[in-house]
Amino acid sequence: MTFAQLARLAGTPSATELPAAELRPAAGSGPIARLRRVSRTYGAGAAAVPALRDIDLALARGGFTVIAGPSGSGKSTLLQLIGALDRPDAGGSVEIDGTPLDTLDDDARADFRARRLGFVFQNFNLLPVLTALENVEYPMQLAGGSAAARRDRARQLLAEVGLAGKEDRRPGELSGGQRQRVAIARALANQPALVLADEPTANLDRATGAEIIALMRRMQRQLGTSFVFSSHDAQLMSRADVLVALVDGRIAGAQP
Ligand SMILES: Nc1ncnc2c1ncn2[C@@H]1O[C@H](COP(=O)(O)OP(=O)(O)O)[C@@H](O)[C@H]1O
Ligand SMILES: [Mg+2]
After folding, report:
1. Does 3.40.50.300 match the CATH number of domain 3-13+62-85+114-255?
2. Residue 102: C-alpha distances to residues 18, 56, 90, 239 (Å)
């Protein structure tokens, strides 16, 4: 299978489908994420489900933010809006890393996601036919550079997340915690401004979950990358700089 085919499977544009290399947008200095009057309603009429209601939020650059709340409170919906995977109802706006997302068409949004954002999922979402090293190299196809440089960076990232020596294992030959470490290395591959993680510890036991959060915390401090993750685990919420509590699609409280 070619990388382009894998990319299509993974829903990410492959290098050949992207416009010619452009300069990476200058890193802004304002908040990494700013949401104004954001609502998101699924469906319409009598079947309408208001998942988010009138959210105003600004997240400081370089922070470690947890979005907390019970199941159904709107955490995934909020992360999808911040991750340029979905759009708010009319009247709301989302600005990420200084870019107003409503100015981007679908192709530009895909490009923005690939270059500026990293994603970590509850189910890891690694490509099963690729080794750990190949999974980390794969998004770097977008950024260009030599194959050797990509390989070096992937090795370095895997070492950073504690997987030196496991480069050639496929996901099926790794534990859940190790898979999530690969996913974190992959999310960091293109030096994103922001990494989004939707309940990254939900499929891990408590101790492993705590290790994964500690790892994300270390990467955030070391690289200055902003992290936003969702959780309903109190143990993890206590590790955040900023806690955004959602109840029924509304912000019930934010700290500090
Ligand atoms: N695609 C969808 N279609 C209809 N309703 C949805 C959809 N996705 C989520 N919802 C509803 O929106 C609300 C918020 O969901 P979600 O953002 O997934 O919450 P959480 O991630 O906190 O569990 C819930 O009531 C959920 O049932
Ligand atoms: Mg969810």
Report:
1. yes
2. 20, 16, 10, 32
pLDDT in tens, 141-186: 887 789 999 999 999 999 999 999 999 999 999 999 999 999 999 9
The pair of structure tokens assigned to 12 is: 């990410």
Distances (CA, A) of 74 to 147, 156, 170, 240: 40, 36, 33, 19
Neighbours of ion ligand 2 (CB under 5 A): 75-76
Position in ligand 1 atom list of the atom nearest CA 80: 17
Domains of the chain, residue spans: 3-13+62-85+114-255
Residue nearest to atom 7 of ligand 1 (CA): 42
Per DSSP bridges, beta strands 93-96 and 226-231 are unpaired
Q: How far is the CA of 79 from the centre of ligand 2 (A)?
A: 9
Atom in ligand 1 nearest the alpha carbon of residue 71 = 23
For residue 95, the tally of other CB atoms under 10 A from its CB is: 19
Identity of residue 81: L
Tokens of 154: 């992937």
Q: Quick one: tokens of 146?
A: 């030599």
pTM: 0.88
